[in-house]
Specification:
Elements lengths: L1 E4 L2 E4 L3 H12 L4 E4 L21 H5 L6 H12 L5 H20 L4 E5 L9 E4 L9 H15 L3 E3 L4 E6 L5 E7 L5 E5 L2 E4 L8 H8 L18 H8 L8 E7 L9 H6 L5 E2 L15 H9 L6 E5 L1 H10 L16 H10 L6 E4 L2 H8 L3 H16 L20 E14 L9 E3 L5 E7 L19 H22 L1
Parallel strand pairs: 1-9, 2-3, 2-10, 3-6, 10-17
Antiparallel strand pairs: 4-5, 7-8, 8-9, 11-15, 12-13, 13-15, 14-15, 16-17
Helix pairs in contact: 1-5, 1-14, 3-4, 4-14, 12-13
Bound molecules: flavin-adenine dinucleotide.
């Protein structure tokens, strides 16, 4: 057993743990950070950027969003079923956090919307001077570098196992195990738990949220996120919270493949359920939370996006109806071939192609009579208006000319939200809502601010919450240790 000393131990080095490491080390504390993977950054290495409200980028771009409007919008959306003080504090800090990241050397390409109806709060980290994927990794690297310059020590492939409290109930230590199996014990005054939730634990999601993987939830699976921090925190006396999935919808086996396939199927065309009926105004398909929710509650938790050959031809000639930065492709020339390849793969259930509508419905297992009726009604509405769900006329494209294509969408998630109960200072609370001295948590392990459905109308929200709460935790630890 190796024995070490620190002021604070940070468990997990995604954006929340890294931000906490910077703040605590900046205050002169001795920081030890444990990370179970061989790199830091967590899920955010795959993302593009955090939320900011009232930033200089928004001012430069004449984006009209301020804390008051965002707060009111957010609280309406969540029905005030969330911690209003945390929301206010996070939004107020968010512009300063964007500037703080810039001071660490992070460049932002600007403030962007995720889809047309959202607000331009998503501060996309510049990749090679422009917009590219995985800018989150650059942001994480900047925080890691600063924390290390300040003397913080990072231990990789070293999962934390246990949080210890002394006889007075104060945090007094953390146990971890390194990659060779050697136990490490750290004496410390404070701990920050930031392990990113349980996005890689079907068991945890079944137990805490009732989902069955491969049946009603098809998760991206973020390697290593097993809910360990939440379990450790509860074992050390933390109260727990409701947990949700940051819902999206995907073609489970093809979403990370040829990009034109999800992009085309996510256009606002006809979406039906297994009973052959429409169930959403497809304009909402860009809001992955709303559409994920709607697909989740259909029979078999499945939705079929239906397009015909004329729609593909129109997209190739005039461009797509809607584009976004996550599934951003301008060239969809490979769409038909990619669909054919997917269909020929016996292990891939995501795409069906047929010469007739009847055949398409049969192959998909959709009720044929209902489906034909729905298509007929839908095509009629394309000539008049969508009296069923009021989709704007510009998105009403008839389904007439074969071959016909169906993309089979299933609910998925960007990870889990919630687990450890904290207050707006990121202090962990016990079952009686008392602060546990020296115990802090941040990031998605604690994130219950969206209520039942992730808030995509203010994009960059999870990463924004994680960096900001990481900072709050680091600042809180600094004050606590000084006292
Ligand atoms: C593909 C993708 C794209 C995304 N894009 C965006 C985006 O553009 N904007 C946005 O706002 N959000 C985005 N998100 C969500 C965002 O990335 C996450 O919400 C965020 O990374 C969570 O941060 P965190 O610090 O709480 O946890 P994580 O980033 O998950 O980090 C947790 C860390 O803890 C480590 N850990 C776990 N258990 C232990 C243990 N026992 N001991 C030590 N270490 C442990 C993990 O290995 C991990 O490194 C995206 C998510 C995905 C999957």
């Amino acid at each position: 057993m190796k024995n070490l000393q620190a002021d604070v131990v940070i468990i997990g080095t995604g954006p929340a743990g890294l931000a906490a490491s910077v703040e605590a080390s900046e205050a002169g504390l001795k920081v030890i950070a444990f990370e179970k993977q061989n790199v830091s950054g967590g899920a955010a290495n795959m993302g593009m950027g955090p939320l900011g409200i009232g930033t200089r980028h928004q001012q430069d771009q004449m984006v009209d969003i301020d804390v008051e409007r965002a707060f009111k919008m957010f609280m309406e959306y969540t029905h005030w079923r969330v911690d209003a003080n945390m929301v206010k504090k996070y939004f107020e800090a968010s512009a300063g956090t964007i500037a703080w990241l810039e001071d660490l050397g992070v460049e932002f390409a600007g403030a962007y919307k995720y889809f047309p109806k959202s607000e331009a709060t998503w501060h996309i980290v510049a990749v090679n001077g422009g917009i590219g994927r995985n800018g989150g990794a650059i942001m994480n690297k900047a925080m890691l570098d600063r924390a290390q310059e300040n003397g913080a020590e990072f231990f990789y492939e070293t999962p934390a196992k246990e949080i210890l409290r002394d006889a007075d109930g104060k945090i007094c230590g953390v146990n971890a195990v390194d990659k060779d199996g050697e136990e490490i014990h750290v004496d410390c005054k404070a701990v920050v738990v930031a392990t990113g939730g349980a996005g890689d634990s079907p068991e945890y999601m079944k137990e805490c949220m009732g989902y069955t993987f491969g049946k009603d939830l098809f998760n991206i699976v973020i390697p290593g996120l097993k809910g360990e921090g939440i379990k450790m925190a509860i074992a050390a006396g933390a109260a727990t919270t409701e947990m949700t999935v940051e819902k999206i919808y995907i073609l489970p086996s093809s979403d990370m493949g040829v990009q034109s396939v999800p992009v085309v199927f996510m256009q606002p065309n006809l979406l039906v359920n297994v009973q052959g009926k429409r169930f959403i105004n497809e304009e909402q398909m860009q809001n992955t939370t709303f559409t994920g929710n709607a697909i989740q509650i259909q029979k078999g938790a499945i939705g079929f996006s239906i397009i015909d050959s004329s729609i593909i031809k129109t997209y190739k000639k005039k461009g797509l109806d809607v584009v976004n930065f996550v599934h951003h492709v301008s060239d969809i020339d490979d769409f038909e071939q990619a669909c054919q390849d997917i269909m020929n793969d016996p292990n891939n259930p995501d795409v069906v192609i047929a010469d007739t509508l009847e055949e398409l419905a049969e192959k998909c297992g959709i009720d044929v009579d209902n489906f034909l009726e729905t298509v007929e009604e839908y095509n009629d509405m394309c000539d008049s208006q969508d009296t069923q769900f009021y989709k704007p006329q510009k998105f009403m494209k008839p389904i007439k000319k074969g071959p016909f294509y169906a993309g089979l969408f299933r609910p998925s998630g960007y990870g889990t939200l919630g687990g450890i109960k904290i207050n707006e200072n990121c202090e962990v609370l016990d079952d009686d809502w008392n602060v546990i001295p020296g115990f802090y948590a941040a990031g998605t392990d604690t994130c219950t601010i969206y209520g039942d459905s992730y808030m995509f109308l203010l994009p960059g929200n999870t990463m924004g919450y994680c960096v900001n709460t990481g900072r709050f935790a680091g600042q809180g630890v600094a004050e606590y240790c000084e006292e």
